[in-house]
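fyi for ur records
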Amino acid sequence: MQDIQHPQRVLIVDDDEILNGLFCEYLGARGLSTLCALSLAEAKNCLRTAVDIDLILLDYQLGDGCGLDLLTDPEYQHLFGELPVIMISVRDDHEFLESCFALGAADYIIKPVNLSLLALKVSALIRNRALQRLIRQQNTELAGFKLNAEREEAVAKYTYEHLVRQNRASIDGVSIQIHPSTTFSGDIALARFSPRGDLYFLLADATGHGLAAAMTIMPVVAIFNTMVARGFHLETIVAEMNRKLVRDTPVDRFVAALVIQIHRERHEVCVWNGGIPAALWIDQGRVLHEFPSNHMALGILDEPVFDAGVSRCPTPASGEILVFTDGLLEAKSPVGDAFSLARVHEVIAQQPANLLQQLMASLQAHVTHTHYEDDVSLCLLSPSIIAQHFSQRIGLRPLDAELQLPTAAIEWSLRLGGQELQQLDLPPLCMSLFQGLRVPFAVREYLFLVISEVVAFALDQGVLMLDSNRKNTPAGVVDYFTDWQKRLALLGHEDYLQLSMAWQPGHGIHKPVNQFQVTVKWQVSAPSFAIFNTPDRQQLGTDPALLLVKQLVDELYLDEAQSCLRAVMYVNQSIPL
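which gave:
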C-alpha cells in the first residue's frame, strides 16, 4: 500500500488499549503509519497537531463521549469532506448505520472486528483518497494550463485579427463575408489597389482549421500586400507566394487560393485559381463566365513545375464577380445533403438585392444552424464601382505635402529590348529603387502610377504601334490584346524601350521646390511591323492614359520626332536642403 504522494497514516481512536494496540500492530505490519488515541480528547488533539492523516478508525462508544461527536464538532467538521472515517461499533441496526453515513462516515465495521476485512477497507479508502488527491492536483494543473491556453489564444486572436484589420482595405465595390468554424479562420479575403490603379483581390483557404490554418495563411497575406504595393504583376505575386509556402511550411500544409487582377487601363480581368471553386461572372441572374480552378494549390509544387499562368477576359460593361470557398458548397444539412453549386445558381437566378446576404440565409436554412464544419467565405466584386473608387483616390493624393525626400540629385536609366520587354516589368523595378532611397510610400505610389502609364503608352503605341482607341468596344479589347501579344513576341534586338528618371533638388522663390522627371524613349525597327497599319499619330495626345497623367503631373511632353515622352512633377518640401 504505497501512496503516490506520501506514506499513509491512520489515526486509531478506541478507548480499549488492547484493541487499539492490536489495530496499530496489524495495520503497521501492512506498511501503514498509525497514531493512537484512547479518548475523544486525544483524537481532537491529534487532528489539531498531526499532519498527513489519511484515515480515521473511530470507535462509536468512547470513555469521554460518542465517536459521532467528533464528526459534528464545528472545529473539525471541515476535515471530513475528504478525510475518510470508518466507524466501529457493536450496533448494526439500520437507523444507526444511516445516521453514521449521514454525518460523514465513509464506511462501517461491526465488532468483533474481522482484521482482514478491516485491512481491505482501510486499503481501499486510502487508495481512493490518494486518487482523489491526485485528481484534484491534476484538475488544478489542468485549470492552470487552460487559463494559460486561453490567455495565449486571446493574444493570438488579437494579433491575428489586428493583422487582418491592418491588411484589409475597405474598397467600394468589394464585399467580403467570412464565417469561421472556430475562433480562427483558415480563410482570408483581401482587396488592394496597386499604385497603377489595378485592383488585386485574394481569397485564400488554408489546410485544416483554427490557429494552425491561420498561421499557414499569414505569409501569403504578407507577400500579397507587399508585392501589390510595389506594383508586381499577378503571375509574379502568385509565384512568390507559392515559393514561400513550399520553402517554409510543412509538406502537409498548403493554401488553396484565387487571385484576381482587374486592369484599370486595359479593361481586362486576370484570374489565377488554384483549388478554389470557380469564380462566377454574373449579371442579371445569369452566369456569363466561369473562372475554374486549373492549377494546384499554393505550397505543393516546386518552382520548375509550378504554373503561375493566368486566365484573361475583357471586363464586361456590367455585372459582378462572385467568389466563395468550398466551405459554402460542402456545408451539409442534418441528413448529409451538401449545399452544392446548384443551390448557388438558384440564389443567383433570384436576383436578390443583397446576393451575399441571401446566400448566407439559404445556407443557414439548409444546415439549420450557424455552426459550420468548415470556414465559409463569400465575396462579391463590382468592377464598375471599383473603377469609381479609384478615380476618387486620384484626387486625394497631392504631392505638395511636407515630406522627407532625397536631398541629393539622383539619375537612373534602364534600357530593355527584344525579349527582355516580355520578361521584365519596369515599374516594379522603379519601386524597389524608390524604397531603397526611402522615398515615402505615398510618393512612391504616386510616382509609380505616373511611370506605369507613360511606360504602358510608350510600349503599346510607341514600340508595338497599337491604337488605344480600339479598346472602346468589347470586341476591340479582345483584338487589341491579341495583337499586343503577337507584336510583343516579334520584337527583335533593335527594338527597345528606355526609361530614365531624374531627381533634382532645387530652390523656388518662396520655398524649396524639387523636380522629378520621367523620360521614356523608344525605338522600333520598321521591318518588324511592316504588316501592321500605323495608327494615326495625331490621336496620341488624346490617349486616355496620357489624359490621366496630365492630371497627375505639372508638365507632360510628347516628342514624336525624338520618340520620347517626358513627364515632370514639382514636389514642395519645407525642410532645408
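The longest strand covers residues 496-507. thats all i got for now
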